[in-house]
Design a protein that fits this description.
The protein has 344 residues and is α/β, with parallel strands linked by helices. It has two domains: 164 residues, Rossmann fold, CATH 3.40.50.300; 126 residues. 45% of the residues lie in helices and 14% in strands. It is built from 15 helices and eight strands. The strands form two sheets. It has a five-stranded parallel β-sheet, sandwiched between helices. Helix 2 runs parallel beside helix 4 and helix 13 crosses helix 15. The longest helix has 20 residues. The two termini are 19 Å apart.
């Protein structure tokens, strides 16, 4: 690096952080992410070319009315008298399922819990199963974003958790993803979801949300990549930026529990990474997926040097059992990288 490339100040580093997260923070953070903090049913724009989007929006408005008492009778009286609503939003990447789920949580208001599948499994790991049930059973609605079907143990755990909550009168809403090219594979992920939750399958109402990935429609991903020198200069000039070398960052992630990845980003306004290259190990790739999800939740732009995100996951990963996670991560990472480039 030449003298003109040398940063005036040394940015902070994610590798230097080792956050400690108390259990009460895990519970307090079960709210819609910052990325969707201001979204509502009114801000969702259904695609006229895909009527299922409008149908899903209308149905979720009805669910919100039912849970908030907008319909006749109090919620507590209905909770005792009949099974609570349970809806599953079934569709591909970037069609607005998370927007709709967050809008439902906002419309219903407290007491509501909102988190990703991984955040709930982390909560069970931190609290234990029964204390988690007791904590969530006090909520009117529990929303589970990105319900994952690729880990049998976690899937069974979450199915049991949902059954316990439904039996206690808690309303449920969930989403999961299907690959963009999987339109011919049955009912998207719905068949898999209903099979895995078994005893609850007859309680869930499946809402199709067809469409294209809006992130791909909105982004121009064909531009030139960034050099490591450009990434370093940008990180040095941006307050609140962190700068890490890719190999060191992925090694550090292995030492931090995924439940703490959100806290790892406290106060961070930009994440800059140099030397980005292909990941060969599945466990490393899965930790990166969790980090990308937390970055996306918090609207933290990224700058990627080296090879960028294009070749991050191997062809075998993108066609294997965890492919839905990887495709979701690439979709979100592209959006964050575009936001980072806008800073330049």
């Amino acid at each position: 690096m030449t003298a003109t490339d040398a940063p005036a100040t040394q940015p902070a580093s994610l590798v230097a952080r080792r956050p400690q997260v108390p259990v009460d923070r895990l519970l307090a953070e079960l709210v819609p992410p910052r990325h969707f903090a201001d979204e509502s049913f009114a801000t969702y724009r259904p695609d006229a070319g895909h009527p299922s989007q409008q149908a899903a929006l209308d149905r979720l408005r009805d669910v919100a009315d039912e849970l908030t008492g907008a319909r006749a009778g109090s919620w507590w009286r209905r909770r005792r008298a009949s099974a609570p609503p349970a809806v599953y939003l079934d569709g591909g990447f970037g069609v607005g399922k998370t927007h709709l789920l967050a809008s439902l949580a906002h419309a219903v208001g407290g007491p509501t819990a909102y988190g990703t599948f991984v955040e709930y499994t982390n909560l069970v790991g931190a609290l234990g199963f029964l204390p988690t049930v007791e904590a969530l059973a006090k909520r009117r609605l529990v929303c589970i974003d990105e319900f994952e079907l690729d880990d049998p143990g976690d899937t069974v755990l979450m199915a049991r958790l949902l059954r316990e909550l439904a039996d206690r009168g808690v309303a449920l809403a969930a989403t999961s993803n299907t690959l963009p090219g999987s339109l011919g594979e049955g009912r998207f992920a719905a068949d898999d979801f209903l099979r895995e939750i078994q005893a609850l399958a007859d309680r869930f109402e499946v809402l199709r949300v067809d469409g294209e990935d809006y992130r791909h429609r909105a982004l121009s991903t064909g531009g030139p990549g960034l050099t490591d020198a450009e990434v370093r200069r940008a990180a040095a000039s941006e307050p609140g930026a962190t700068l890490d070398e890719f190999a060191g960052l992925v090694a550090h992630l292995a030492t931090v529990h995924p439940s703490r990845y959100g806290a790892l980003l406290d106060g961070v306004r930009l994440v800059a990474v140099t030397g980005v290259g292909p990941v060969q190990a599945q466990d490393v790739a899965l930790r990166l997926v969790v980090l990308v999800d937390r970055l996306y939740d918090r609207d933290v732009p990224v700058l990627l040097g080296g090879g960028g995100a294009e070749q991050l996951f191997t062809p075998e990963m993108l066609s294997g059992g965890y492919r839905k996670k990887y495709h979701r991560a690439l979709s979100r990472l592209g959006s964050l990288a575009e936001a980072g480039r806008a800073l330049l």
